[in-house]
Amino acid sequence: MEYLGLDVGGSGIKGAIVDTVSGKLITDRFRIDTPEGAEPKDVSITMHKICQHFQYTGPVGVGFPSIVQHGIVLSAANISKNWIGQNINVLLSQESGNQIFSLNDADAAGIAEMKFGIGQEYQKGVVILLTIGTGIGSAIFSDGVLVPNTEFGHLKIRGKDAEHRASDAVRQKEELSWKKWGERIDELLVTLEGLFSPDLFVIGGGVSKKFEKYAGNLTIKTKIMPAMLLNQAGIIGAAIYAKEQFEGSG
Ligand code: BGC
């Protein structure tokens, strides 16, 4: 079955039609810049444009960069605070007419990596995926089952949210060397290792392509690997989520 998956990020909103059986994109990715301020109305309009681009009228999965509990947005670290309390599924469907199923963006990426990426071999045990971009997103799986909305990027490290020390945006803004950035992300990984004793860490987001540049600065004992699906993971996971929710809801 083919579903449209969307990935709402701090800088761009990306979408593609996904074959949810193979986990492959069956169209090119289509991207529009995230509107300034990421206000609800502007994001809804942008999302509608992406649906129109694909001439797609079916159910849409949306990975969203905040806590999303049963469709309700509960946090807004890198988007407009006007999202808080909104039912994103209702709001987005009013604009586009499509049925919407939304979830946290890192949870979406995690779902894709567990099903079609690096996590396929780790259906037993605990896997923690971090998506590192404008913020730091997280997803944790126990025996392949997701516990949603973990928000490890907001754990306090040296008195600051981890994402304010070690996101990719901070790396670029502060012009950190890979060594220095590696030491910073290591502090978050060490904390998570102490709390969860995972079997595997997966690093997603743009920095996953540069893994060998900072792997040597990581002191954790847990196995750690870069994500396999790179910038497609969020889209693929959102589409899988839409399929599961749509077909599950009968
Ligand atoms: C948000 C998370 C999101 C992450 C990555 C964080 O600031 O709180 O919900 O998953 O950024 O976009």
Q: What does this protein look like?
A:
The chain is globular. Strands 1, 2, 3, 4, 5 and 8 form a six-stranded mixed beta sheet that branches. A five-stranded mixed beta sheet has the order 11-10-9-14-15. Strands 6-7 form a two-stranded antiparallel sheet. It folds into two domains: 2-107 and 232-248, 2-Layer Sandwich (Nucleotidyltransferase, domain 5); 121-227, 2-Layer Sandwich (Nucleotidyltransferase, domain 5), CATH 3.30.420.40. The protein is 34% helix and 26% strand. With 250 residues, it is an alpha/beta fold. It has eight helices and 15 strands. The protein binds beta-D-glucopyranose. Beta-D-glucopyranose is lined by residues 65-67, 75, 77-78, 104-106, 131, 135, 137, 151, 153, 163.
Evaluate the radius of gyration.
17 Å
Order of helices and strands: EEEEHEEEHEHEEEEEHHHEHEH
Could you please say which CATH topology of the largest domain applies here? Nucleotidyltransferase, domain 5
Q: Please give the count of helices.
A: 8
Ligands bound here?
beta-D-glucopyranose
List the helices and strands and how they pair.
Layout: E1 2-8, E2 12-19, E3 24-25, E4 30-33, H1 40-53, E5 60-64, E6 68-69, E7 72-73, H2 88-96, E8 100-104, H3 105-116, E9 126-132, E10 136-142, E11 145-147, E12 156-157, E13 160-161, H4 162-166, H5 168-173, H6 178-196, E14 200-205, H7 211-214, E15 223-226, H8 233-248
Parallel strand pairs: 1-5, 5-8, 9-14, 14-15
Antiparallel strand pairs: 1-2, 2-3, 2-4, 6-7, 9-10, 10-11, 12-13
The chain binds beta-D-glucopyranose.
The site of beta-D-glucopyranose has 15 residues, from α3.
